[in-house]
């Protein structure tokens, strides 16, 4: 009986040891993985596919990382990263620039999409095909100074007057409901809302920001972290970027397979929208860049200057501190 008791205790100790003291994950060879938190900027969508692919295919684990994907909540990814509640996250060039002007030392570590796919979308029967057509129309947005500065910049290209546009704050209202009921046009990212319009067979016009102002061809979205993370845990930053790069390179080469992974992980998403969006967006992740993730200093400098000149930020920002290509596996020339 005593022998049976000691055997039971020994087995229990083995089980407890296997569980570990923090419940952390390990790779297939028994090596402990470093827990890492990653904050999304919005509802999961095809901007995030590479991260889901890297997690599902084990690229993060191969780099020694156990990545937790977090929804941003009300705080937002920038605040979660700045406070240390998230190690990495999805952000945008404008938000990183604003954050740095306000003393939050966030850094972009990779461009998810090479060129800005945002613009002003409207039903074709409203006949808004260029910035001059904004005059006399109702715009639905978030009511921010940045929105007005964007629009004024491209309207100036056609000697149109922004004070002839009626701005209405529609918050997070559904685009399709808003343009049928309250406004004439609004800002969207074509890779999601534009593709949704195609699936709904609703004909739309799109006026892209980058087509009228080079300085508005910003990196949006991007992957971000903090200066503190870079200074104190450089190896983890490099490991994260290498695995994310593998994930996005897979999404470029295999859009359908990558869309399936995103759908499997986020079952609430509309599969038709994900497949169609992925087909549209996969070639645009890298686009004309030498490699996925690369960012150009001139585009950061031009946009930071534009934000300062237009009063969006009160302090000038050293653009070279706001981004880095140093952690990409394929270094920029």
UniProtKB/TrEMBL annotation:
Alphabetic keyword roster: Signal
InterPro entries: NMT1/THI5, SsuA/THI5
PROSITE patterns assigned: PROKAR_LIPOPROTEIN
Domain of life (superkingdom): Bacteria
Segment forming the signal sequence: 1-20
SsuA/THI5-like domain: residues covered: 45-257
A Pfam family it matches: NMT1
Protein name as catalogued: ABC-type nitrate/sulfonate/bicarbonate transport system substrate-binding protein
Organism, as annotated: Virgibacillus natechei
